[in-house]
Amino acid sequence: MGLAKKTLTSQARGNRKFYFGWGFNNVSRLGVGDLLSKSSPTIQGTSLLQTWNKVYVGKFTTTGINSSWSIAIDSRGLLYSWGINSSGQLGRPINRSSPVQIGTSSWTAVAGGFQHSLALRQDGLLFAWGYNTNGQLGDGTVLFRQSP
C-alpha cells in the first residue's frame, strides 16, 4: 500500500489500485463526492471499477493559502482532477468534489507544485497549468492557465 499524507487529511492506495481518503474534507480534497470529513478510509473515484495508476496529492499549506487538490491517471491512462481550484490547477474552471476527467488524451505521469499541475502525455509532451506568477509553468509567461 502507498500512502500520501497531507496536513489534516490522508490518502492511501490499496492492493488493487483503489485510492482511499479520510480526514478534513471542507474543500473536496478527498475526491469522495461530498464536503463531509471522513473518520475512516473512503474510496475515491466515481465507481468501484475505477482504479488509479498514479496520483498526485496537492498540499494544504500553513501560509493561509489553500492549494488542496489531487490529479490522477486512471488504469486506462485518462487524466482526472478534484478538490479546490484556486488557480486553475484542476484543468477545469470550478472546484470538484469527485474526480472529473480532463480531456481525452492518454497520460503517463502527473506531478504538481504550488497551485499548479503537470502531466506527461503518452507521446512525451509535457503540459503544465494553474498558478504561474513566477513562471513556474515554463511557458515563457506569468499568465495563469486553466487547462493543459
Structure description:
By secondary structure, the protein is an all-beta fold. It has a single domain, classed as Methylamine Dehydrogenase, Chain H (7 Propeller). The chain has no helices and 11 strands. The strands form 3 sheets. The protein has a 4-stranded antiparallel β-sheet with strand order 1-2-3-4, with no helix packed on it. It has a 4-stranded antiparallel β-sheet with strand order 5-6-7-8, with no helix packed on it. Strands 9-10-11 form a 3-stranded antiparallel β-sheet, with no helix packed on it. It is globular.
Name some characteristics of this structure.
148 residues; four-stranded antiparallel β-sheet; disordered N terminus; mainly beta
Could you give a quick summary of the protein structure above?
By secondary structure, the chain is mainly β. It has no helices and 11 strands.
The CATH architecture category equals 7 Propeller
Provide mean pLDDT, rounded.
76
Work out the helicity level. under 10%
Rg over alpha carbons: 14 Å
What is the N-to-C succession of helices and strands?
EEEEEEEEEEE
Output the number of helix runs.
0
In the predicted model, the low-confidence regions spanning at least 5 consecutive residues are 1-9, 62-66
> In CATH, what is the homologous superfamily?
Regulator of chromosome condensation 1/beta-lactamase-inhibitor protein II
The profile of the biggest β sheet is: 4 strands, antiparallel
Q: What is the first-to-last residue Cα distance?
A: 30 Å
User: What fold name stands as the CATH topology?
Assistant: Methylamine Dehydrogenase, Chain H
Instruction: Give the helix/strand class.
Output: mainly beta
Q: Approximately how much beta-strand content do the residues carry?
A: 35-45%
